[in-house]
Amino acid sequence: MEFHEYAEFFPMMEGEEFENLVKDIRENGLLEPIVTFEGKILDGRNRFLACGKAGIEPRFREHQDGDALSYVWSKNAIRRHLNKSQLALIRIEMSDIGVERQRPSRELATSEISDRTIRQVRQIKREAPDLIPGIRGGEMSADGATIEIRQRRAKKFAQEDIAREDRRERQENPREVAEYLEAVDSFRGYLDDFYEAIETAVDVAIWGKFSPEAEDFVTRRHDRVREQIQSVLDMMKRVEEVFNEEEAENE
Q: Exposure pattern of 34-55 as b/e (b: 16+ CB <10 Å)?
């Protein structure tokens, strides 16, 4: 038998929780009949599947207790182990269905979920729908998703500010920016050579403790390290000059 769309708002039992239901039905039978509506299962999906696994013939009754949407909420919101964020998401989705079908539900509107949580989840649905599966599955709370949204906003604003500032500087000071970038690239190259020279000198120095013939090579590498250090210092001075020139022109 198919499941009614109203029932699909609530997650199915899984793992140990479902196995415990199967065990209970196998030992005690189906104590509560499965409720149908419009020819589909409205309440009792887990009981229906558990009966099949336990080898028990299920019993059914047709829903005749008023608004079917409110009925599903009242039967599942309390007895299922769902957190407030999950319930808020379900309530929003069920309420939207009710409005679309012109079936306002007083029970949905007065459920014990704070307006703050409802607002949070609605905002998450608008701004970060990719976080909704985490809320639906209970892995993420509305508070956690809200923090994630704020972090995304901050990161986006920071990137936009950096991009704007970079465009402004390139437009206002193209020559200075080009010289600065060239100096930085050169500095990085010298720095790489510097580290390589140091590592080589250290390796050879260790080797030289056991091989006297390496002394001349170590001395030559030592001189090369000193040259690289001086080159780095020269480039650092050049970068500082570029900055000073830019500040002077801005004044």
A: bbbbeeebbbbbbbbbbbeebe
Sheet (strand 60-62) strand order: 40-43, 34-37, 60-62
> For residues 165 and 159, what is the distance between their CA atoms, to the nearest angstrom?
10
Check whether 196 has a pLDDT greater than 70. Answer: no
| 131 and 11 in a common domain | yes
- Per the confidence metrics, is the pTM higher than 0.85? no
Q: Which residue, 22, 33, 27, is CA-closest to 62?
A: 33
Residue 110 and residue 206 in one domain: no
Count how many domains the chain has.
2
pLDDT per position as a tens digit, 157-189:
767 766 666 666 555 555 655 666 666 666 666
Is the CB of residue 180 less than 8 Å from the CB of residue 167?
Answer: no
